[in-house]
Write a structure and sequence with these properties.
The protein is α/β, with parallel strands linked by helices. The chain has 2 domains: 144 residues, Oxidized Rhodanese, domain 1, CATH 3.40.250; 120 residues, Rhodanese-like domain (Oxidized Rhodanese, domain 1), CATH 3.40.250. It is built from 10 helices and 12 strands. The strands form 3 sheets. A 5-stranded parallel β-sheet has the order 1-5-4-2-3. Strand 11, helix 9 and strand 12 form a beta-alpha-beta unit. Helix 4 crosses helix 9. The longest helix has 12 residues. The protein is globular and about 50 Å long.
Length: 284
C-alpha cells in the first residue's frame, strides 16, 4: 500500500529539483511546541533553505482571542500570505527545522483557505536538506508581494460547540494526538490553568507514533493505517483531530489524509480551549 497522495511528501532531492521550476515557493513553517520556548523566527534567520519565506504561525492567526494560533480571518490570511509573495496557484513546499507539526499545521491552514496549487511537505525538514548536501542561507528573506485571495473551506475545521453536539450524535470520531499520559490525565498540561483528561469518547494516538522520530519523517502508509486502525479509527467515519493547541492535531489529520481518509477536520481550539471550559465534560 502506498500513500493516497504520494506527491504530498517529498525528499530533499525531489524538493531541490522542483524548486528549479517557476511558481514554486518554499515556506519555513518552523514551530517550537511548549515547553520549548525557542523563537522560530530567530531560528529561521540563523539558517533556512535558500529562497524560503517564514510563515509565522502565531502572528498569522486570530489575535483577538485568548487562545494560541487560532485560524485568522480570510482577509488576515490573504494579506499575510500576499506579503510573503505567494499567489493562489503557486506550488508550495513546506518544511520545519524542528519537527513536522509546523509544516502539518501550515498544510492544513492552506487546505482550509482553499489553496489552488499543490502543497508538499519536505520529509525530514531542514536536517534532511543539510544531510543531502544542499546549502543554507541566513538573514531576512527577500520576496515580491503576491496577490492571494483566501476562500474559507469550513469542512476542514470544527469548534467546541461542534464537539459538544458530537457527544450526542457520535457522527464523528475524535482523535487526540497528545501523549497517553496527558490524555489519561496522568501528566500535567504544559499550559497552566487547564483541567487534565480528554474529550469523552475520544481516541488517542500520540503524534510520535506517526513519524520516525530520528529522521522526522512520516511513517509508511501501511504503518500509519495500522496504527490508526489499532487506535480505533474507522475509515468510513468522519474524524475530528485534536491535541493540545491545534498543532499536532494537524499531524493526525495529515496521517489520515495520507492513508486515504476523505472526511477530516481539526478542532482548532483543542485542549487549550476545551480544558479551560468549565461547561464541558472531561473524561479520565
Amino acid at each position: 500500500m502506498g500513500y493516497a497522495h504520494p506527491d504530498l511528501l517529498m525528499t530533499a532531492q525531489e524538493a531541490a529539483t522542483l524548486l528549479k521550476q517557476p511558481h514554486v515557493k518554499l515556506i519555513d513553517a518552523t514551530y517550537f511546541i511548549p515547553p520549548d520556548t525557542r523563537n522560530p523566527y530567530e531560528s529561521f534567520i540563523k539558517a533556512h533553505l535558500p529562497g524560503a519565506v517564514f510563515f509565522d504561525i502565531d502572528k498569522i492567526s486570530d489575535t483577538t482571542v485568548n487562545l494560541p494560533h487560532m485560524l485568522p480571518s480570510e482577509q488576515v490570511f490573504s494579506d499575510a500570505v500576499s506579503a510573503l509573495g505567494i499567489n493562489n496557484q503557486d506550488q508550495l513546499i513546506l518544511y520545519d527545522a524542528y519537527g513536522l507539526a509546523g509544516a502539518a499545521r501550515v498544510w492544513w491552514t492552506f487546505q482550509t483557505f482553499g489553496h489552488k496549487g499543490k502543497v508538499h511537505i519536505l520529509q525530514g525538514g531542514l536536517k534532511a536538506w543539510q544531510a543531502a548536501g544542499y546549502p543554507l542561507e541566513q538573514g531576512e528573506p527577500q520576496s515580491t508581494r503576491g496577490d492571494y485571495q483566501a476562500h474559507f473551506q469550513p469542512k476542514w475545521v470544527r469548534n467546541w460547540q461542534n464537539l459538544v453536539k458530537n457527544l450526542e450524535t457520535h457522527q464523528s470520531q475524535v482523535l487526540d494526538a497528545r501523549s497517553a499520559e496527558r490524555f489519561l490525565g496522568k501528566a500535567p498540561e504544559p499550559r497552566p490553568g487547564l483541567r487534565s483528561g480528554h474529550i469523552p469518547d475520544s481516541l488517542n494516538l500520540p503524534w510520535g507514533q506517526l513519524v520516525d522520530l530520528e529522521t522526522l519523517s512520516f511513517l509508511p502508509a501501511e504503518t500509519l493505517l495500522s496504527r490508526l486502525e489499532k487506535a480505533g479509527i474507522q475509515q468510513t467515519q468522519p474524524v475530528i483531530c485534536s491535541c493540545g493547541s491545534g498543532m499536532t492535531a494537524c499531524m493526525g489529520a495529515l496521517a489520515l489524509y495520507l492513508t486515504g481518509h476523505s472526511n477530516i477536520a481539526v478542532y482548532d481550539g483543542s485542549w487549550a480551549e476545551w480544558g479551560a471550559l468549565e461547561s464541558v465534560p472531561v473524561a479520565l
